[in-house]
Structures are given as structure tokens and as C-alpha cells.
Write a structure and sequence with these properties.
101 residues, alpha/beta, 40% helix, four-stranded mixed sheet, 4 strands
Length: 101
């Protein structure tokens, strides 16, 4: 399955596919670019995400860094339930919880 990041408008995008070690590099740079151009806020919808690994969490952490540097409020919609254990075991809930919509 191909992983894609599809812009919906200037402040929203959707990820479709798996977020694994070999697929995250496909969408990471595009997400960083969209974030930097987003204006005040950017929402990424993960409803179309299938399999996930720690690489998917690392991608979201990188987007958090890019958003903070650009002064953009990042929001994460439809975080996959199977991503939550990776976030939990990494003690990252305090970083993710405020971003979830």
C-alpha cells in the first residue's frame, strides 16, 4: 500500500496508508512543507492510516517541532488507537494529548 499525504486545503491534510520505517520518509517532508505554509493552524487527519510503528510517532514529533518553529498550531485528528500504546510506552502522552481533536 502506498502512503500518501493529501492536502485538503491550506490548513488540513489527510494521511492514507501505513506509517512504518519505509513509508514515513515518503510523507514526512511534504507534511513539513505544508505545515510551514499553513498560517495559524494545521490539522492532519490520520483516519486513513493502517499499520503504524514508532516511525509514525517520530514523524508526528518532527511535525510538532516544525509547527513550533513556524508558530503554527498543530492538531491531530483521528489518532489511530493502535498508535496510542507506542505513545504511552514512550511517555509522550503530555505532548500528544493537547493536539488531539
Amino acid at each position: 500500500m502506498t502512503t500518501t499525504l493529501t492536502p485538503i486545503d491550506g490548513s488540513r491534510a489527510e494521511v492514507h496508508g501505513d506509517l512504518l520505517n519505509d513509508t514515513v520518509p515518503v510523507v514526512l517532508p511534504e507534511g513539513s512543507r505544508l505545515l510551514a505554509e499553513a498560517g495559524d493552524s494545521w490539522t492532519v487527519d490520520l483516519a486513513g492510516v493502517g499499520k503504524v510503528s514508532s516511525a509514525g510517532v517520530a514523524m508526528l514529533l518532527e511535525w510538532m517541532r516544525v509547527a513550533a518553529a513556524a508558530g503554527v498550531a498543530l492538531h491531530i485528528a483521528n489518532l489511530p488507537e493502535h498508535m496510542r500504546p507506542i505513545i504511552s510506552v514512550s511517555d509522550l502522552e503530555p505532548l500528544f494529548e493537547p493536539l488531539l481533536v
